[in-house]
Amino acid sequence: MAxxxxxxxxxYTMTKAKILKWIKSExxxxxTGEVLLEIETDKVAYGIESPAGGILTVRLAKEGDELAVGxxxxxxxxxxxTLDVSKxxxxxxxxxxISDSPCVTLQESAPSGSYLTKETVLVSPVAKKxxxxxxxxxxxxxxxxxxxxIRLSDVELYLNRVSQAKPDRPEAIxxxxxxxxxxxxxxPMNTMRKAIARRLxxxxxxxxxxxxxxxxxxxxxxxxxxxxxxxxxxxxxxKISMNDVFIKxxxxxxxxxxxxxxxxxxxxxxxxxxxxxxxAVALDxxxxxxxxxxxxQKRLWQIALERKDLVERAREGRLKLEEIERGTFTVSNLGxxxxxxxxxxxxxxxxxxxxxxxxxxxxIVSDNQVIIQPMVSMSLTVxxxxxDGAIGAQFLHDLKRGMENPYLLF
Amino acid sequence: MTSSHERRDNxxxxxxxxxxxxxxxxxxxxxxxxRVFVFGEDVALGYAFTVCKGLIDEFGPERVFDTPICEQTIxxxxxxxxxxxxxxxxxxxxxxxxxxxxxxxxxxxAKLRYMSGGQVSFPLVIRSPGGKWGSFAAQHSxxxxxxxxxxxxxxxxxxxxxxDAKGLLKTAIRDNNPVLFIERKLLYQIPGPVPIEEYLxxxxxxxxxxxxxxxxxxxxxxMLSEALEAFKLLEKDGINATVLDxxxxxxxxxxxxxxxxxxxxxLVIVEEGPKTGGVGAEISAIIAEEALDYxxxxxxxxxxxxxxxxxxxxxEDHILPDRYKIVHAVKDLMST
Lengths: 410, 336
Prior knowledge:
By secondary structure, chain A is an alpha+beta fold.
């Protein structure tokens, strides 16, 4: 019995992956759980393990190929089995995805290779022919016929859209960017850069953002932290950082404000049960947001331990996709750069992101006296499709109250 | 795809009926070649459908004569006469009666030129009307065009207009091979433009009546006029159809159909005969073999149901294809 090896779906925003490297060669004996090949998605590298023991009989895609989720990349079979590869429907390569790089694609339409998919796509012969000639991935084309059948007009419409999405003519670009400017360096966008560009542009464009600002007295938090730090170091050897406190405070507050732990999918708002707070981590050239699962239910030192591990692996590029995709709310802290206050762009499809500035000793008027207190400014950015002003304000109010009175939270 | 040989634009046209056009073709060819003669049941009187009416006055009883009501006699006489160098044009009053002469047509006429190594030829044209006449029931309403496509050595013409009827019949009479010339009863009294001047229409050249980009409708015989009516109905809904008449089934102008399908990506074939094993089946197979990659929807055949033609008018109408069934088929394809 032959077993197919397919590109797994590692998260709900994942649509495709690139083959980085084949570990196993055709004809290699493999065991269940052995890594066959490495793939790269928008966010992470991932090793695909063999779903069965046997021989890696066929490799159906090569290194560098970009494939859709579900595409079959290889087949594991018994040595004595003869394999009928022809039963797999051949569909043209998925490159290019229209949203990423519409400009390159159709010009260089020579298909670099076909790949196979299990899914049956209803497609008219002439539509299939045109897609083949243009090197299009039929799985990216929406069919308007019965049962989603892809017709000639659908492919033509897709081609139209792609050609309109192409950048303007070179002379037009020159006119905008300034003729005669000398280019010092051209930096090609890597997969992550492209993903950031695409996702945040989409978020900025689709989600109506608004911001709410608050200033929080950090006196009590600082006291609490000085106590907890000792405990955590004693128990785990890990120092609790201010970020861990923010994560915990936000998570507990979110448990009372489910609207901010939600996402919009088509015409509905989905409240997510699990509160998984992501922390924005800056990388050399990029940004990634690993999330701590059920942060509201975890002790501070547990959060610290997990956060440390996630940040380390984020910098090494060894995060699992799931650790990124599970985030339901994001915390971004630029205090270490002496930033006083800033606004973030929502991390789609999340409904909220909290931007945290530097904690500073500031003069505060209290009981008709000017006193000095450690203060932090925060900006809550929310998706107005999901969260209205008052709901966002209540959340921020509760967060402020909790942080100024940590015994309410912890 | 009007043939360049036809030079229709330069000719002076007048309106005559399909039967009159056929009569003109017969008369002109009889004047041109003394070996041409016509005979059959009630031919001298010009019955049953008036095609031969009056020919006896010009050409006399030796070249225009009646036979007993015995179809084997008619075709047997014709095969012998053709073999001996005459150019007979017998008439079988209803194509439903052709089966009685199957051996003479299919085993003798179609094959002897080949079997004799070309020593004899068969300049024989069998004229016979098919299709609906209106409550003429199962034995006088059939359309048997497809049967004769299966007999190598025969040519099969199915003219749909007075113009095609005249031009194709003259070509058939000049052909040295046996031709089955299948007319249509309901078309005999339908007028249409026909040139005064002499003209011929070569076999194997389809005629495109309308050019549209959405669908190709191949219509045979009387179904051409239904297809042209369907064209008007579809046009109101913004659907532009190419209506194509192959005019001869053997030889078939498959290139015209292929080229049209490559433009429209959709094909509907309309014939009055039963669907199973019909002309549409053959054309569908050609497209599937040679132009599958150009199709945007399945091929649709609009044909008679696979049942004997009933006497009852409502049942007969139900069984036979018409303009509405064509429109329905086209719209169905457009939404597939």
